[in-house]
Amino acid sequence: MHIDPLEKKWAYVILAMAGLFVLIIMIDAIFHSINPPSNVETINSTSLHLSEEFAEDNLGVQVDDKGNITVRIVAGRYGFYPKQITVPSGTPLTFRWASMDVIHGIHLPMTNMSTMIIPGYVAQLTTNFPKPGDYPLLCNEYCGMGHDHMWSSVKVVAKEHWAAPVKTASKGDSSHE
Ligand SMILES: [Cu+2]
Q1: Rounded to the nearest whole angstrom, what is the distance from the C-alpha of residue 67 to the centroid of ligand 1?
Q2: Which sign, positive or negative, has the C-alpha torsion 126, 33, 163, 83?
Q3: What's the mean pLDDT in 21-28?
């Protein structure tokens, strides 16, 4: 079988490119621990407001007794709730995402935060932002007419300037506890 030398040359170029991409993916996975999120956890997306974890009062940044920081955000057409969060730099953060309607995706440019948020599942990932700054949080999964407007922001402040949010009792609840 005859293969034109020029065609052969380009076939090698393409193979080398494919090999390079596989190599980059493997280096990221093995040395930088950049992997697809693997948390499988189900939730009833139609009643997030009634769920214990994703009820409105529970959203945003929370610190537990051991000092672990968890951020809970609900995605829904067309926004992220809460709209803005402030977290410390150089600290491990666990993000837990849930969708109230359709499939959304999140992408925080210049960080390793990227996952789909599928209705019925909790998307969880752990990250650590090395540098303070304002990061845009974008929906990267087409979710409807208002998709272009679906964005929010994450403010990362230096660890020493960050104050843990104070949990206030919800209204009408002050007489209990
Ligand atoms: Cu979207």
Answers
A1: 33
A2: negative
A3: 94
SS (H, E, C) 75-105: EECCEEECCEEEEECCCCEEEEEEECCCCEE
What is the Å distance from ligand 1's center to 137 Cα? 11
Residue 86 near residue 60, CB atoms below 8 Å: no
* Ligand 1 centroid from CA 76, angstroms: 9
Taking the C-alpha atoms of residue 100 and residue 11, their distance in angstroms, rounded to an integer, is 47
- pLDDT, residue 112, reads 80
Q: How far is the CA of 132 from the centre of ligand 1 (A)?
A: 26
Total of domains in the chain? 2
Domain membership of residue 174 (yes or no) is no
In a domain, residue 54? The reply is yes
For residues 25 and 7, membership in a common domain is answered with yes
Find the 110 Cα to ligand 1 centroid distance in Å.
Answer: 19
> For residue 74, how far is its CA from the centre of ligand 1 (angstroms)?
13
In a domain, 98, yes or no: yes
What range does the domain containing 124 cover?
45-161
Q: Residue 100's pLDDT band (boundaries 50, 70, 90)?
A: very high
- In this structure, the answer to whether residues 49 and 94 fall within a common structural domain is yes
* Ligand 1 geometric centre to CA of 85 (Å): 19
40 inside domain: no
Q: Which residues surround ligand 1, an ion (CB under 5 A)?
A: 139, 143, 147, 150
